[in-house]
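Possible race condition, two jobs.
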Amino acid sequence: MSQQSDESDEDEKQSTTDGDEDPVVRQYDIYITPEIEQKLLLLQYPNRHREQPYTAANNARPLEVRMKPDAGLVEVDVPLNIHANYDREKGIRWGEAMRKSNMEKDGGAYGLAAGFGIGSTTRRTARVSVNNEDFGSREASQEALLANFDDANNKGRVLNKQTLGGQLNPNEGWTPNYFIGAFRGNELHLSRLDHIAQLRPQFPHIDALTDQEKSSARAQRENVNQTRLNEPRAVQMTVKSADGDDLDMGETSKLLRAAQEEKWQRLKYLDEDSNESWAAYHQKLFLEDTQDAPRLTSNMTNAEYLNAISAPRTKVSHGGKKEEVIKEEVVGEVNHDSDVIEV
């Protein structure tokens, strides 16, 4: 008798579950954490598979993270595996270009972070000695570097890292608010993000090589006609609009110059599995006192909320006149007493 009763109850539960097209799987108490002093950023990597994260466990721990807060730029250097699927000849060629560029520009930048080259940049033409080796007098040959590839890599002559860069999304009054969630038991704690950035591969090594080729060609022209090239020239940036009118690019030039002049702020990177990262996770992303947390209340009914988020709808009467349809009629009947929408 007991066995038959248990089977009957089980069948009833199964039929109830099957009949519910949208069952409630689990419920969570939601808390919003207070704002923290540090900036909370979400860095996304659209070109990287989620199963290959940039972590120490995956042998891809980022080497450096840097930001230009005013310009809203962020860059991350990640290591390259130079011993698998790697063109050593091009790696040395680009590595040498980056090494020379870093010496000439004092570790400068390329692309948007450098204002796309708007204005002049400070260059060092004097001979520079690094690690007691005079690079200004002569350069090692490509063959010698290839023959001692590991040694060349240790001396910074091989392109062994990739730069990922992007822009921080604007945090204005009209922009949406994004949150990240952290679970603890039956609690979901939401923390507001300050910025989101999608980081994609940058190509500073290509820019460095092109820049040096242009500098070499410019030096040859200066030897031919030094006086003419030293004459000051005014440059006005313009761009053609779709209708052919000239648009002044003065404001854009100012923004690019500001991005060029702002110094990088280098940040300390902590791997996700480090003790410091786990400590920050528990301290910053959870609300400690959940018992006395204020409850969120809404000052809108369901009908008012639907009216606020819905687009206006119109209908055409028999006379051809357009009339706005009351949104409650479109959504369904609204029970104002219980604030439950009955469709």
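Job #2 (started ~2 s after job #1):
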Amino acid sequence: MLRSLSRAAPSSASLRIRSNRLQIQSSQVPAATCLLQSRRGQRRHAGIHAISNPTLAGIEKRWEEMPPQEQADLWMALRDRMKTDWHEMTLQEKKAAYWIAFGPYGPRALPPPGQNKEVFWYTVLGVGIAAVLFAISRQLARPAPKTMNAQYQAMTNEYLKSQKTEPITGVSSEGYKGKGMIQSKPRRGPPPDEDDE
């Protein structure tokens, strides 16, 4: 048993050293692999040719009329060019890439001239029609009810006091200083009759 322990101890220490060496080597391998892959990627991207100037000429005017497939192809070609060093891109490619990404087309398009005036006049027209309809409905409506005058509402206050309605916070409470039920302007003409109660 002692022999097996003495044999096991050196072998476990040597295993630890070997595993540490493997870890160090394996940590260096991905860095070297990444370097090789990046060099291969640079070679691959170096093979991407510049997009011809006639293809990019007047892109601002032609973009919206281009078929979607053509737009996608041009954007993908520009995207591949942008993956390379930007110093290698032509000025025309840089301008086209910027315009496609941020240009005033689609939802970013500028409003057509005169649209603000058109919106203003349609709004004025809508408000005018609403005012005319309101005035017509007020002319055709019945007169205000007889209860909508200050005299009738004062009589309602007196009635509520005689009935001792809401004695804690309402009209019947001690020291009440509010208006009570009075909310309308005084009526022109004779005061309401006793029958109007």
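Residues 24-36, 38-47 have pLDDT under 50 and may be disordered.
Logs attached separately.
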